[in-house]
Amino acid sequence: MNENYGRRKYSEIIGLMDVLSIFLITYYHAYNYYRYYATVEDPFNQHIMFYMVTFGLTAFAFSSGYKLFFNHEYELGDKKFLTNYLKKRIGRLYFPYISYLSFTLIFVYIFFNIFSFQILREIYPFLGFPPMDIGSIIKILTLGIFPLAGHLWFLFVILIITMIVLVVLYLSNGKVLFFVIFPALFFYFTLNIHYMQSYEILTEIPYYVALYAIIFLFGSYIAHLQESNEILFDAIVLILSVSFILSLCIIEFFPSIFSFLLNTYLKQILINPFFLWGMTYPLFLLLIFNILYKFNLLPIRLARIKIYTLIIYIFQYPFIIPISAWVCSKFALLNGDPLIKLIPFIVTLLTFILCIAIHFSMKQLRINRLFE
């Protein structure tokens, strides 16, 4: 009973972590368009944006690795299971990627190259049909580089990481997998210096694969540790949660100390917020959510939204968020609405509602398999 309760609890907690992550990422994208359309000063939203995207992406990578071991640890030694699971993951991540890219290309080509509606030019002043030569197509299909739906890079990175992890598991075993974190760290350190100096697009994807692979593998290890050594698991959660709080306080209240720590390349790599908070923020969430769960204060019903996170992530750009932000900003500016700074939040909620509605509509038309 206690084991089933514990598994159900952490399944709901991780589900809620995914929902919170997609909310933060959507809010970040909504704010970027709101800032462009509304053209108002908003110091608060501007200040929290970096936290939004950092926390959202790192928690997603962590939960992806955590769920692999939490749900399938005792099946990962079965090569038949790994083969079938790899096929499912490719279908789950790459097929929606290709379907949505095709859909986006058709939309942009029809409305920008054939009709060229003025209102679309106002909503998308910086968007146009990209060159579709052989090189561009190869980059789209193999590197996740696509300007019309730039947000899909993360989906592509998680797919590559998942494929690497499953291949390692197929050729070895679960314990060997955790040692992959060391070559991942090596590539992260090496690519970080090169990418920070050159910002080459061909370095960007491998750099992010290395970075998020570390967080993914750490999530897998935490799920394994939770089952095998609960005392060590609790200790690591507590220590890294405190580390997260301290690092956040230093950045917020003692920025001069943080600036001093970033005076060399090596320190920039080690104290990179995506790296530092990728190893600490998810565990802080586990700790806080666990406490709230014990006192029945965690909004567990919201965890049901987790089944729509992929749809919300895919469909939010370049359609729903830009159009919603443009409409809300125009309406607020015309009416002199004092609540204009709530537009990113309103657009985020609208995006959730519209994406879930699109999911049910596609299900009725039996085309939902194209995007999930």
Structural class: mainly alpha
Main sheet attributes: strand count, strand direction, barrel closure:
none
Shape: globular
Q: What is the end-to-end distance?
A: 33 Å
The residue fraction in helices comes out at: over 70%
Q: Give the C-alpha Rg.
A: 21 Å
The number of distinct β-strands equals 0
Helical segment tally?
A: 16
Poorly predicted tracts of residues = none
Tell me the number of structural domains: 1
How confident overall, as mean pLDDT?
Answer: 82
Strand content: under 5%
SSE order, as H and E?
A: HHHHHHHHHHHHHHHH
Could you please describe the fold and organization of this structure?
It is built from 16 helices and no strands. By secondary structure, the chain is mainly α. The protein has one domain. Helix 1 (2-38) packs antiparallel against helix 2 (43-72) and helix 3 packs antiparallel against helix 6 (153-171). The protein is globular.
Short overview:
With 372 residues, the chain is an all-alpha fold.
Present the secondary structure layout.
Elements: H1 2-38, H2 43-72, H3 79-115, H4 118-123, H5 134-143, H6 153-171, H7 174-177, H8 181-198, H9 201-228, H10 230-253, H11 255-261, H12 265-270, H13 273-278, H14 281-294, H15 309-335, H16 343-365
Helix pairs in contact: 1-2, 1-14, 1-15, 1-16, 2-9, 3-6, 6-9, 8-9, 9-10, 10-11, 10-14, 15-16
